[in-house]
Amino acid sequence: MSDQSGEHVHYWDDGRGRRDVFIDGLTETKVIWCDTKAGIAVVADSPLKSSDGETVDFHPAWGEITVVPAEGA
To answer: Is 19:69 a contact under the CB 8 Å cutoff?
Structure first.
């Protein structure tokens, strides 16, 4: 696994502004965390739900991940 710091790691609240995330060329919404170097993302389930009543359920996604600044951001 790649290191957890650097330009290839993106968090929803890392302070770098809004970005669009593409996994294998398809737009993915609700990305919590992704690593473009390792090709993995953690994505909140859609529709949003919580099995335990406290945290949002999520799942991993693998593929070619591209992150670009969002328009108007």
So the answer is: yes
